[in-house]
Amino acid sequence: MNTPARSSVRAEKLIKTYGSGRTEVTALRGVDLDLASGSFTAIVGPSGSGKSSLMHCLAGLDRPSSGRVFLGDEELTGRPDRELTRIRRDRIGFVFQSFNLLPTLTAGENIALPADLAGRTIDRDWFDAVVTSLGLTDRLRHRPSELSGGQQQRVAIARALIGRPEAVFADEPTGALDSRTAAQLLSFLRTCAQESGQTVVMVTHDPIAAGYADRVLVLADGAVVRDLDRPTTDDVLDALREHEPVTA
Amino acid sequence: MIRLALAELRRHPGRVVAVLLAVMISVGFLGGSSVFLATESQALGRAATAALGQADVVVQPNGEIRPTAQVLATLRSTPGVDAVAPRYRASADFRIGTGTTAPSGSLDLTSAADDPRFAPGRLVSGRWPTGPDEVALAVDTASRTRLGLGSSLTLSGIGGGARTRDVTVVGTVDAGRSLLGGLRDSGFAAPALFAGDPAFSYLVAARGGTDPATVAATVQRTLGSDVEVQTAAAVRADTVRSLGHGVDVFRIIALVFGAIALLVGAMIIVNTFAILVVQRRRQIGLLRVVGADAGTVRRSLLVEATVVGAVGALLGVGLSLAAGAAATAITGSLSAGLAVPWPTVLGCAAGGLVVTVLAAAVPTRAALAVSPLEALRPVADEAAVARSGRVRVALATALAVVGAGLVTLGLTTDGQSLLLAVGGSLLLAVAVLLLARTLLPPLIRLVGQVAGLLGPVGRLATANALRNPGRAAVTCTALMLAVGMIVTLQVGSSSVRQTVIAQLNARYPVDLTVTALEPGAVVPDRTLAALRAVPGVRVAVPVAAAPATVGRAGAPKSERTTMLVEGPGADAAPATRSGLGDLSDSAVLATRFTLRANGWDVGDRITVRIGDRSTTLPVRSSNLGDDNTLVVTRATLLRLDPALATRSGTAAVWASVPDIDASPGVAAAVRGLTAAGTGLSAGGSLAETASYTTLLGVLVSIATALLGVAVLIALIGVGNTLGLSVLERTRESALLRALGLHRRQLRAMLVVEAVLLALVAALVGVAVGTGFGWLGTLAITRQSGLGSAEFAMSATRTLTVVAVAVLAGALASALPARRAARATPVEALADE
Fold it and tell me: Could you tell me which residue ranges the ABC3 transporter permease C-terminal domain spans (chain B) (predicted)?
């Protein structure tokens, strides 16, 4: 593609504080970022760097204390909960580290959940395509308790993708997986970004996982300190070490 | 969202069992009491109907008694009248066989008539008595005395006279039964048995096609003001109404307890759904994240609540029918058919469903106020808890103020005292429950000081109990309610009983009197000895008494009547609560009833004549003495009948039965001692005290049994909550184990925590229950015009309730404690 990529996820001067008075904690100190559609971005940083807070704000799960968040052309900040919910349902997909699925529903029902909530009918062909590409065809009738960790994550991704969202946010998606399954998952995420034009944003502390991304943002103490383009795992490790909290 | 709701229900059906039970029992209680009361009323109606047969008009002599033949002739010749029959009534003592220990009792006799239209009941076996030596018994009397066709009895004292007659049982009759009417034995006899007595009433059958009201009016005109003429329908309605006053009291009591049951049910439903919402916090959060808006999630939860509520309500309807049928089977009214007031019962079911959904809506709102992200975090934000606290306290205070206001209004004004008091009490109860979260932690801390003596386990347990005041309040609330209800019931019933009996005691200064009826007769020594030996009789004092002719001074002979004159000495004091002070040598004492019955006014001079001695004294009103006896000082009596001083035996015995609980037993024994053939009759407050004690005892037992199930619900709720808190503390428990806490110490810690919470809940429940029981008594007393209320409370029963609650709390924690202790430290720490 030669035309400049459209901006899909954008943040302006994001500030997020928790608590008040003496217990006030600043998680984000004025973060600016601009993620193009079709990109696979990883956000890394030591614990306490604010990466989870950043993702929550970008995904419309939490409100920043100040600053603005955009999804495509629409601003997310300042919208009432009802509209945010609708946007989450129709235009955003989520994958978490664990607890992605409702234990009382089958895998198939879990995948169809956002559509059910929207009252939309699912395109059967698209459903089958996603399920097949994730290798879940014979697991659709099983409950989450009957699936392995890797299978559960795959079901979660299927659910995230089924609505063809503009953006997919993943919070430590490979944290609970063995290395082989993790590799498969990450390849799949990269394929989604490249082929479907979705914006995939992944928060991780694992440098190997970060190596799969096109772009890696290093967060430390609530601010973006490095912006790496197609880094290798070692590049990421170096960047992290640079910004490690100083030990006395 | 319905699919989601049903999926949740199918996966964890056990979690809603408590809600189901709560709804089922509340609806069952309210509905069951409606069914019970409706069936009782129907049986009462049938009994009242049975006595009148198919008569259309009832004529009741009012003033001067005219000869029966004359009245019959007049009635028969009245236009519109088809047939007439006189109805006689009399009481008689009966004895089967000989000897004072033979089964016996008192029989209410009604005359049977030749005309089947006036049959006073339905013949079950044998035939109606036709001659003066025959009698038919009511079915219940026959079964109680084990008499059957062909048995013989001796009747004596028929209609208060001296007649004695041996009769044979020729039939049994179903005259309808009910809780209130079935306490006396009844029988039926031919008119010949009542020979010479004036008719009690006349039954008239109207000619076909004529309006009974018209016939009644005609008869009234014809016979004048000496009679009271009513249509049979009006008489039935009056009878049911007057007997129904007793049923009204039951209805009020049932309403009060039903409201309480509903409140407990609602609280348990709120608690259970609060727990369910917490358990599914992460799922709800996930749904919100994935795109379900607040309305959708709330709808899903409410659908669950509706389904559970509907199932519970339906089961409750079934329970109503079963409970009502069982209760009326016990009282015997079921034989008249089960009356099911469907609108009321279905209304109760609908009410149960509505309460379930409303109760579920409360915690649902709270859950959805949280942002989706927060819901995914494991621990609730502390700030949020504090915020809701202020609103809660404000609401609770407002409710308390309004509730207290209503209660005060109810207790100080006349009119709907009970309704206002109950309404106000409910608001106060809700206020207390809302304040539980604020009140309980300091109390737990206080009681926890004692637990701290047990060492580190105790201290940890106390700290755990205090860590989440909301959770502690939830756990305690259900148990607090259950204990509170039971104590309210106990205190209320004891106090109501005490109040009623205080009234009786004021009216009857002597608990029990036994008097010899015939002139010259005495209470045999062996009867006196037997009376003294009855457990519950504290003292039985012989009182000098003799029959005398009494009448107003200067009045004609016709106004004179024979009455027993009693002259208690100072030795009668132990048997008398009060009234001895009224005695005076210059007056004669009579009860208000006696005065009214004889047409005397206070101050009238009454002549009392025994043999050829007489004295004339002014009459004064006093509660001392039975109806239709006079009381004078011993000296006055001895002046009239000097032989009394030397004669052995007395014609009257006064006894004291101070223990109310013993009264039913004493009453039964006295019935035996004063049966037919003994020539004795019993008086005083004992009979009424006994019947109140028995009635209230039955009511309390039934209500306690029903409340016992509510306690079971509360325990299920406690177990549920404890199980949840153990699950949430899995990692903590594992950490403690890793640090060196033994398995049994961990179990002990959880048990101590449960016992601590249960004890505090029970203590608060006792305190609150006593308060509400007292309020209820005050309100009932005011509503029924019983006078001043008295407080009564049984220490043993209350302590038992507390002990059971604490034990149950410990038991409820046993299962979760075992589960917690079973996990190895490493396993549990690895759990996400």
Answer: 256-371, 706-825
Instruction: Please report, as a single letter, which amino acid is at residue A160.
Output: A
Q: Does A23 touch chain B (CB under 8 A)?
A: no
Are residues B216 and B69 both part of a single domain?
Answer: yes
Phi/psi at B552 (5° precision): -65, 140
Maximum pairwise Cα distance, chain B: 109
Contact between A85 and B292 using a beta-carbon 8 Å cutoff: yes
Q: Which domain holds residue B523?
A: 511-684
**B580 & B527 share domain:** yes
Is residue B333, in this structure, part of any structural domain at all?
no
CATH number at residue B625: 2.40.40.20
- Of B217, B237, B257, the one marking the end of a domain is B237
Residue A100 with chain B: CB contacts under 8 Å: 286
Tokens representing B439 are: 């009140």
Would you call A117 and B287 a contact, using CB atoms and an 8 Å cutoff?
yes
User: Do the domain assignments include residue B466?
Assistant: yes
Residue of B10, B12, B290, B373 for testing the chain A interface, max A β-carbons within 10 Å: B290
Task: Specify whether B68 is located in the same domain as B200.
Answer: yes
Edge-to-edge strand list for the sheet holding A167-171: A92-95, A167-171, A199-203, A40-44, A215-220, A223-229
For chain B, positions 640-699, list CB contacts with chain A under 8 A: none
Residue B427 inside a domain? The answer is: yes
The whole-angstrom distance between B475's CA and the closest CA on chain A is 27
Q: How far is CA B752 from CA B48, B453, B669, B748, in A?
A: 60, 12, 51, 6
Number of H helices, E strands in chain B: 23, 20
Q: Token pair for residue A42? A: 């990883």
Helix (H) or strand (E) holding B59: strand B57-61
Per-residue pLDDT, A203? 92
This complex has an ipTM of: 0.72
CA distance B649 to B636: 19
Task: Give the whole-angstrom CA distance, residue B644 versus residue B651.
Answer: 10
- Nearest residue on chain B to A94, alpha-carbon basis: B290
| Rounded mean pLDDT for each run of 10 residues along chain B, 832 residues in total | 75 72 81 84 72 81 76 83 84 68 69 80 85 85 79 77 80 66 72 79 82 85 82 78 65 68 69 72 79 81 89 93 86 76 89 88 74 62 52 88 88 77 84 82 86 80 75 73 83 83 82 82 84 88 86 76 80 80 84 83 86 87 81 86 79 86 85 75 84 79 69 67 68 72 82 86 90 86 76 83 86 78 64 44
Longest CA–CA separation in chain A, Å: 59
- Asked if residue B644 and residue B677 are part of one domain, the reply reads yes
User: Does residue B249 lie in a domain region?
Assistant: no
- Cα atoms in the 13 Å half-sphere on the side-chain side of B348: 33
Answer yes or no: do B543 and B663 share one domain: yes
Query: Are residues B826 and B723 part of one domain?
Result: yes
CA dist B775 and B781 (Å) reads 10
Residue ending a domain, among B237, B254, B288, is B237
Contact between B142 and B169 (Cβ < 8 Å): yes
Percentage above 70 pLDDT, chain B: 84
Best of A61, A152, A168 to disrupt the B interface (most B CBs within 10 Å) is A61
**B679, B690: one domain:** no
User: How many other C-beta atoms can be found within 10 angstroms of the C-beta atom of residue A34?
Assistant: 11
Total number of residues shown for chain A: 248
Per the structure, the count of domains in chain B is: 4
Question: Which of A82, A84, A85, A94 should one mutate to test binding to chain B, selecting the residue with the greatest count of B CBs within 10 A?
Answer: A85
Handedness of CA B463, B464, B465, B467 (dihedral sign): positive
A126 interface with B at CB cutoff 8 Å: no
> What residues of chain A lie within 8 A of the CB of B373, using their CB?
56, 61-62
d(C-alpha B402, C-alpha B395), whole Å: 11
Fold (CATH) for A7-243: Rossmann fold (3.40.50)
